[in-house]
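Incident log, structure service

09:12 report received: a user says their structure output differs between two submissions of the same chain.
09:20 pulled the input from the user's history:
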Amino acid sequence: MTYRLTPLLASLAALGLVSPAVAQTENLDDFVVSATRQARDPLDVPASVDKINQDTLEKAASFQVNLSETLTRVPGLVINNRNNFAQDLQISIRGFGARATSGVRGVRLFSDGIPATMPDGSGQISHFSLSSTESIEVLRGPFSSLYGNSSGGVILLTTENPRVGTELEVNQIFGSDSTRRSGIKLNKGNGEVGIVIDASTFRTDGYRDHSKARRDNFNSKMVWNLSSDTRLSWVVNYVDIPLAQDPAGLTAAQLAQNRRQGSPASVANNSNKTVEQSQTGIVLEHQFNPSTSVTFSPYYGDRKIRQVLASQTVIDLKNEYSGADLKFAHQANLLEKPLFLTAGLTVGELEQARLGFANVNANSNRDEANTASQFDQYLQAEYFLTDRLSMLAGVRSSSIEIESRDQFLTNGDGSGNKKYDEVTSNLGFTFRLQPNISTYVSYGEGFETPTLLESAYLSAVNPMTNAPLSPNFNSTLDAAKSEQFEVGMKAKFGNTKVNAALYTVDTENEIVVLQAAGGATAFRNAGPTSREGIEFAVQHALSKEWQANAAVNLIRATYDSSFDTIGSTNDIVAGNSLPSIPEKTFFGEVVFKPSSLYEAATELRYVDKLFANDANTAFAPSYSVVNLRASKDWPLDGGWNVRTYARVDNVFDKQYVGSVIVNQGAGQFFEPASERQLLLGVTLGMKWK
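09:34 re-ran on a clean worker, output below:
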C-alpha cells in the first residue's frame, strides 16, 4: 500500500497545530472512554471523539427513535434518515459504511458493551433505546480499528444507570404523517441494586406512499453492587417491527412526477419487512486492587427478518449470535511515570439460516446455513512520558471466518468459505502545549471483510437482465485494508471550545457495489481509494443565555485507479468520487437558554451533493434545511414535573433527496426526504425518595 501525506497535512503535523473534532454541547469536562477504554479527559486522547449526553438527547425535542435526530451534530459522521423503516439508517464515518445497501456496515456499533455489529461486519441499530440513553460516544480515525473488523468508526451507546429512589416518566409525542410515539420509563434503586426499564411503541403512516411502520421497543438494565469492588450489570433488549412497508427508491423521472409515491413495483408487490430481535448480556466488573481490574461481558441474541422485495422475491433470515469480551486493565509505573495497560480477548459467532422464495406463495428456491466467527486478541498501552507528553499504542490480532453451506442443490452447489487473518496496529502522541490546549498525531491500520450479504452473489452481472448472477458464495472478495493518519488540536478558552482534525485514509481493495437489481446485490473489490478530510468544531457561549455551536466536515474521497467489468454499467474511472459521500457537510445551531427549565434553538444543516453511482453520472443535489426546536419544564409540587416540547423540521418546506441507493441497476437511486414536519410532545415525570 502506498501511503500519501499531503504537504498541508505534513506541515501541520510537524508544527503540532491540529487535533480531533469534538463537537459536544455538554459540560466541557465530560470524560470519554472509547479510544483508551479508560475514562479520560478528551484533551489527553489522541483521537477524534464526540460525546452526546442525555441532556442533549432530551432537549432535541425529537421522537428519540433514530440516531439521525441528534447525531447530525457530529463532524465526520454522515447519518441519513431514509424515511424508510424497512431499511436501517445510512451511517458513514469518514466515508466508511457509505456503500451499505441494507443495515449498517463499516462502522462498529455497541449498546451497553454488547456488540450490535456481527463478526462479519454487518450491524443494525433498530434495538437502540434512545429514551433511556445516558450517553453516545462517536470515535473516528486511526484508533477505531482497535475494535476490530469493519471499524472505520465506532458508536457506543450507554444506558443510564439506576439512581437511588423511584422515578417514573410517561410520554406522548405526535407528529406529521400520523406519526406518534408512546413511552414509559421506570428508574428504581437503593444503592445496592437498581433497575431502569424503558418501553415504547412507535407508529407512522410515513411521508411516502407505502411507508407505514410500527416499532415496539423494550430495554432494561439492572445493576447490582455486589461488593465495594464488584459490580454486575444485566441488560435486556427487545424490538418488534411487525410492519415496515418498503417504498424503495425512485428514478429521476418518478421523483419529478411525484416525490411521495412508492416505487410502482413495491406498491404492486407489497414490498415490506418484519423484524423481531431479542438479546441479553451481562457486564461483570471486578477490582482486584486499586491498580488491577477485570471486565467480562458475555452476550446472546437472535434476530428474525422476513422481507418481501419489489421483485416479489422473499428473503427469510434467522440469526443467532453470541460472544464475549474479556478485558484486563492494569496500572503500573515505568521510570516513575504512569503506564496503563489493557489486554483482552474477543470471541463472536453468528449462525444464519437463510431461505429464499420466488414469491410469497412459492416453495423455497434457496436454502443456506451461513456462519461468521471471530477470535481476536488485543493489547493497548497508554504511557505518560512527561507531564505534558503521552503516548497511546495498540495492536490487535483478528481472525474472521465466513462460510456458506448451500442446502438447495437443484441449481448447483453454491457453498464456499473464506478466512481472513489480520494484525493491525495504532500509535498516537498527545502533547499539552498549555493546560487548556493539546495537539496530537496518530496513525493506524484497519481492515474490512465482506459481510455474508456481500458474499452472497458472484462479482458478475447477467448481461441479459442487468442483475447479479444466481446465488453463489463469492470467495474472490478480499478484505479491504486501510492506513489512516491524523493530526489535530483541542482547546478550551473560557467560554469557547475549538477542535480540529486533518486526516488522510488510503485503502486497498475497497469493497464496492457492482450492481443492485431485482432484489440482489453483487459486490467487488475496486482497487485503491484515497480520502483526505478536515473536521472542525466550535462551541461558544455568547452570554449566560446564548450559545452557538458549529461542526464542519470536508472530505475528498476518490478512486485511484480505473476498473472495468464486463456486463456492468458501473465502470470506475480513476478520479471519480466514491458515491454517497458528500464532500461538505455543516451543522450549526444557536441556542437560547435563559434557565435550566427552558431551551430553544435554531438549527441549520447543509449536505453537499451525493453521487449515486461509481460513474458519477447520477447524483442527488446539495441541500440546506432549517429546523426549530423548544422545550420547557414545569416543576410541580410533590415531586412532579411536566416537560413540553415542540419541533419543526425543514421549516422552509425544502424538497430534497435525503439518501441514495448506490449503483441501483434500474436507476431507482433516490430516496426523497420529508418536507416540513411538525412535532409536539409532553413528558410527565414523578420522583419518590
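09:41 both user submissions now match this output. Likely a transient worker issue. Closing.
09:42 reviewer note: Confidence is low (pLDDT under 50) at residues 1-29. Residues 32 and 42 are 6 Å apart (CA to CA).
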